[in-house]
Amino acid sequence: MSLLTLTLAQASKALHTGEISATALTTAYIKAIEELNPRLNAFITPTPELALAQAKAADARLQAGTATALTGIPIAMKDLFCTEGVRTTAASKILSPFVPPYESTVSAKLKAAGAVTLGKANLDEFAMGSSNITSAYGPVENPWKRAGSDAKLVPGGSSGGSAAAVAARLALAATGTDTGGSIRQPAAFTGISGIKPTYGRCSRYGIVAFASSLDQAGPMARTVEDNAMLLNVMAGFDEKDSTSANVAVPDFTRALTQGVAGKRIGIPKEYRLEGTNPEILALWDQGIAWLREAGADVVEISLPHTKYGLAVYYIVAPAEASSNLARYDGVRFGARVDGHDLIDMYERTRAAGFGPEVKRRIMIGTYVLSHGYYDAYYLKAQKVRALILRDFQQAFEQVDAILTPTAPSAAFGLGEKMDDPVTMYLNDVFTVPASLAGVPAMSVPAGLSSEGLPLGLQIIGKHFDEETVFAVSAAIETAAGFSALPELRAK
Amino acid sequence: MSLDAATVRRIARLARIRVDDAEVETLQSELNAILGYVEQLAEVNVEGVTPLSGGAQMALRSREDQLSDGGIADKILANAPDRVGHFFAVPKVVE
Questions:
Q1: What CATH fold (topology level) applies to the domain B5-42?
Q2: Among partner residues A245, A348, A360, which is closest to B56 by beta-carbon distance?
Q3: B72-94, pLDDT tens digit by residue?
Q4: A351–B56 CB contact, under 8 Å
Q5: CB contact under 8 A, B15 and A242
Q6: A450 burial class (0-12, 13-18, 19+ CB within 10 angstroms)?
Q7: Any catalytic annotation for residue A78?
Q8: Where are the domains of chain B?
């Protein structure tokens, strides 16, 4: 059996029994990256020498009996996490020369646990996008193909490189970040699982900021169990992040066997949008049936402000982005373009350094925060955001978790949905509300479209109740028995 | 509400992003498409609703006001596009 077919849990066990070594496992993944990354472009910066050095150290720890469950596990690190001494670009030209002098908290925790980093994974520029096409380092190709077609498909975004790497077996697992669906939508598009934890669960320290009230780090992996093992390490209070939650981190793997018997699962009627692909609705119905069969009590609920989620998101996220990205001025770090005076230098630096989508969002954000428009746009959006949170709070008085589709379609073609920015934004219609409310949500692969592409279901939980999210996700995973594999994968 | 070309230029100026004339036209139609979409929020009744600014349902913590780090000027300056000694260097601001 190839080393590349092991799940994280299986690999961890095999490493601990000495059946395989971290060096052998890492070497297999480095070869896979050499073979397929030139085509998929899942990594911006592969770091094979570093990975081998880390694997050697992991083998020593395994020998010495000081290993953790993640020691020797080769992962991809989204290139939004600052990594000390390793270039961190956020997929933007403006950060192309940036080598962080410090390490993000989440990547430091994974490092300390002994995980091996294979490289920095591609993403949409500054995590702004749903298809990975806004990367200044080129798009990522989805390893999946429509049946009978060789057309290139997008892996989703913004964590598109992370998702493609895990699906095509260029990494055993990956880190992602999710602001409006950036873990869940690419997970769904590539047939893997990924969880956006509760806002505040994982430290944002050292993650290149996009929209600070929404950004949250989380794992992406091949199974629900693998995600739980990763989140065990990634989560936890950090005094370096002012919005980090000082809440105990349970062992999430214990939740996997809880089952759903007696659990109340809500089905929000407002997610049954007019014009939604009938295949997506059929998969959702299938998911409902699976949970019923497993003993869950399924009830219809109402989240009345769902339809306003995207509009709120596309005011709040650009507003925060315009403020966060003000730091890229060519003075202290990043690329600079000289000008005849300071203002001219700022303007030329930012014009050359940012791509079109980032510029659009900075400008929308600047506008909605500007004098005379703040109340009409930004304040109004914050009030509707409060109503969206209230919708979830009221729903969670009746139910333990909520089941919805993850995305309104399967992966689409490179170059499709490019007519105008709003068409692209509609991808996030099912994922954005949970982000605005700050509640945890996971995508699990649940079936294939008629074209042979993976489709995901989303499980949303209460604040800091990732355990129920994992329990319900595990039940869906078991019932779905999803075992299809992408056409492009390392073997 | 629809943005005219002058407003697009003004926003670009506020955002410190240089745009040329060809870009203004594209940005104008793209930004108007986005603003047109978010226009639907006007129909939501938000009377008496307290705006939600953060993602966390908690108060911000305070800490002791004391130094916890420092003495790393070289590390901080390592990524500077231009520097003079322990200073970031920029084009002349005062004539």
A1: Histone, subunit A (1.10.20)
A2: A245
A3: 999 999 999 999 999 999 988 77
A4: no
A5: no
A6: exposed
A7: yes
A8: 5-42
